[in-house]
């Protein structure tokens, strides 16, 4: 096994780990897409990106190969998967955050595929921040104001409806 093969295997493994970490929160939140889905999306994105890099090196003499074609198709493909996750249930959108998380997981995989490791790791940290910290803020602060008409919180408002 050559050093470049070892590096590629490491890239694929890192993509799986980072994708699984993103999916862990979704699984703990009892969402449909969990660790395996996010890990596979990240792995697939990294794999396609690595393939595009290798193909660009192999076919650099050809004007017909453009390295950005494969990553741009990853973005489109994940968009279709994400659209399939989003449903309208009882006048509420469901699955939008999970779909967005899958989209970002694909980007994390692409970053690993392009050897932008620190960017991929930092982005994974930011996804955790969004999923966990922002959820807490929405539930504890914003959700209370949205639960009643006109932004009035019935829990905080002691007046009775007339």
- Helix-strand topology string: HHHEEHH
Our count of helices gives 5
Please count the beta strands (DSSP E, at least 2 residues each): 2
Low-confidence stretches: 150-162
* Spatial strand arrangement across the major sheet: 1-2
| Beta-strand content | under 5%
Residues in helices, as a percent range: over 70%
**CA-based shape:** elongated
Mean pLDDT over all positions: 82
Which structural class best describes the helix and strand composition? mainly alpha
Radius of gyration: 20 Å
Largest sheet: 2 strands, antiparallel
Distance between the amino and carboxyl termini: 78 Å
Topology (elements, then pairings):
Layout: H1 3-28, H2 35-58, H3 69-85, E1 87-89, E2 92-94, H4 96-113, H5 117-146
Antiparallel strand pairs: 1-2
Structure description:
With 162 residues, this protein is mostly helical. It contains 5 helices and 2 strands. It has helices at residues 3-28, 35-58, 69-85, 96-113, 117-146; strands at residues 87-89, 92-94. A two-stranded antiparallel sheet has the order 1-2. 28% of the residues are buried. Residues 150-162 have low confidence and may be disordered.
